[in-house]
Amino acid sequence: MGRVKGEGHPSLRLILLLVNLVILAVPISGLYLFEIYEDELVGQTESELISQAALVGATFRDLVAELGGADYGLDHWNNPFGDNLAETDLRIVPTLLNRSSSPIYKDPISFSASTRVVNKVAALAAQKLNPVIREATLTTLSTIALLDFHGLMASPGRGHGLSLEKNPEVAKALEGSYASVLRKREVSGSTDLSSVSRDTPYRVFVAFPVFNGRRLVGVVYLSRTPRQLSKALYQERRNLAWAGASVLALMVVISLSASLLIVGPVKKLAREAKMAAEDPSQTVKRKAKGDFFAVKEVAELRSNVSDMTERLARRSDYLKAFAAGVSHEFKTPLAAIKGSMELIGEHGPSMDPATLGKFAENITLDLERLERLVGRLLALARAEALSPTGEEKTEAGELVRALADRLAAIYPDFKVSVTGTMDALALSIDPDVLETVLVNLLDNARENGAREARVSFSVLGEMGAIKVQDDGPGLNEGEEEKIFAPFYTGRKGQGGTGLGLSLARTLLSPYSGELTFLERPAVFLIKAPLAKGQ
User: Fold this and answer.
1) How far is Cα 87 from Cα 397, in angstroms, rounded to an integer?
2) Which uninterrupted H or E stretch holds 173?
3) 3-class secondary-structure state, position 302
4) How many C-beta neighbours within 10 Å does residue 419 have?
5) Each residue's pLDDT tens digit, 302-334
6) Is the pTM of this model over 0.85?
7) Other C-beta atoms lying within 10 Å of the C-beta of residue 397
8) Among the listed residues 436, 403, 454, the one whose alpha carbon sits nearest the alpha carbon of residue 510
9) Which of 308, 353, 339, 247 is CA-nearest to residue 22?
10) What CATH number does the domain located at 388-529 have?
11) Domain 13-235: CATH class, spelled out
């Protein structure tokens, strides 16, 4: 059993579905591949730490001002919020960290001994705030520490009185600028997805300078581990599931719509094309029944396939008629030759020389006719196989004058005159092809009794035109198109093949040329594109 056409190839519906699935997967995979969402999680964590630092810093500032007076702190040259801010002015602190471009420090925060002693006002204020901070950390999961204006740990507990000024973010905050860094952290092992951030291998540290006017009164030092990407997605699983289901449903609708607009018309076109392939008389219609809307490319494809099947149908009809014509044209002389040979075989010895010579003459004439038919058929086959390059160029005036001189030498009683001054008419056609077409027309005129043929030239738009008119008897009424059909001739008794004009048209067709009967009694028009630069 033969293999079914299309077997083993994916359907267009499946391809559309897979394409939509890939489109759906791209943004999700991009979260992992390009760390887009991970950057967002880091930025979100830093932004939350800034908000907490601003609140704790404002409370710390008011406490030290109450405990140490308005002159408490170091007079500073770099207050990032300005010296004369009103209470309602915005104090924007932009986030600085980006997971994909910010460096991750491998060293943990550095505590070091200092010759200074932690400021008593800062320590007292930190002690007052400590219960509030401890309560807040249970919810925010942040580590919050208060430093005095020299960078010493003012908060009670671990590291109290030690200096943190060797940490770059703290050093920058003591200079009056906000600073943040990422630091590497040890991960003990895999945890459940419901945990928040235990598997995240880095932590965000924020150093927020606290000012009272121009005076630096301390630093709020915070840190927190961002949520891990997989766990952040897990925590949003319900929303993601709803979003995924909605996108999937939309994708199915899009796929079905595309199927109706593309797959349906294409399958219908495939069925019609199959019918046309099985029966050449069937053609694909330019517009399918029931297709109220079709995409441009499918409509163009249907139009092109329709043109192709119509050409194939015409070609099939032409080949049938041509085969019948060839059979008929060959059958008549072959039958005559066979009959003559049988008579000679049976009665040759008893025939007189004159009768025998007549039979031989008839056989010779029929053989010559067969030879002419074969020659014309070969010429027609070559004409249909022509492949012009587009670079052909023929000076029509020169060619016609040379042909007229040659025919005058061969046929003194037949004159070809050239009218007009189209010496510079250059056509995009092979000179041998144009000469063959002209010879066919002029031979037809001469063999039909014409004594003179007049050739003139003109330009019609982008086409060059050559008009051939003779003084012969011309065509009978109704023969104007019949004369271009293969094997149609009014001189069959004189050896005409009926292929001359058909051959001429076929030769011109590959060059986008035309041969038409213009008017009676016998005026023909040859048209061919002008050569480049003409």
Assistant:
1) 98
2) helix 168-174
3) helix
4) 11
5) 778 777 777 776 666 555 655 555 555 566 667
6) no
7) 19
8) 436
9) 247
10) 3.30.565.10
11) alpha beta
